[in-house]
Amino acid sequence: MVDTHSKLEGIDAEGLNKLATKNKENPSGGHKVIKTKTIAEAGFRNLTYVRDHKPFLISEPPQLLGDDDAPNPTEYALGALGSCISVGLLANATERGVTLDKIEVDLEGDIDISATWGVGDLDPQKVLGVSHVRVNVTLDGDADDATLQEITDAAIKWSPVVNTFTRQVTFDTQLNAEKN
């Protein structure tokens, strides 16, 4: 568990300003490609590799036939969502000169998994995945409630992960079949 009583370390306001200025002057320079690689380890255990970081484990809980040694894919997706919102909160506070002592983003998501990865209830009208996310933001900082609400609203509006959740994404899938 995270120590919620220590001071929250801020970010480099000048660095944030330089990055924002660079992206204002060259908006197309902000378009990047994000890459990950996930390799099945055993059963529903998967190792996901990102850049040069150590791989992280993704698993499933026992009720979904996993070993429960790590969060499941949707829990990681919500974790990414919460982290992106948190980053946006700190960036927006920094840009406004607000010091935040505490940022907490609690998320709950309703999910339909009854299709069981394509082998369960395959009603063509079914809408799978997370259908409703509840976001509860807690901020402690040196600003009034109206300013903290503006910071929260901006963080939600401009979050790449919030927008990934709320906007349609195009998928291009390619099979690389290997024969034994």
Please summarize what this structure is.
This protein has helices at 13-25, 73-95, 145-157, 160-166; strands spanning 36-42, 45-50, 56-58, 100-112, 129-141.
Number of DSSP-assigned strands: 5
The largest β sheet comes out as: 3 strands, antiparallel
Q: What's the helix-strand series?
A: HEEEHEEHH
For the largest beta sheet, what order do the strands appear in spatially? 1-2-3
> Helical amount among residues, as a percent range?
25-40%
Please explain how this structure is put together:
This protein has 180 residues and is of the alpha+beta class. The protein has 4 helices and 5 strands. The strands form 2 sheets. Strands 1-2-3 form a 3-stranded antiparallel beta sheet, with no helix packed on it. A hairpin with a 5-residue loop joins strand 2 and strand 3. It is globular, with a radius of gyration of 20 Å. The mean pLDDT is 89.
Secondary-structure topology with pairs:
Elements: H1 13-25, E1 36-42, E2 45-50, E3 56-58, H2 73-95, E4 100-112, E5 129-141, H3 145-157, H4 160-166
Antiparallel strand pairs: 1-2, 2-3, 4-5
Helix pairs in contact: 2-3, 2-4
Main attributes of the structure:
180 residues; three-stranded antiparallel beta sheet; 4 helices
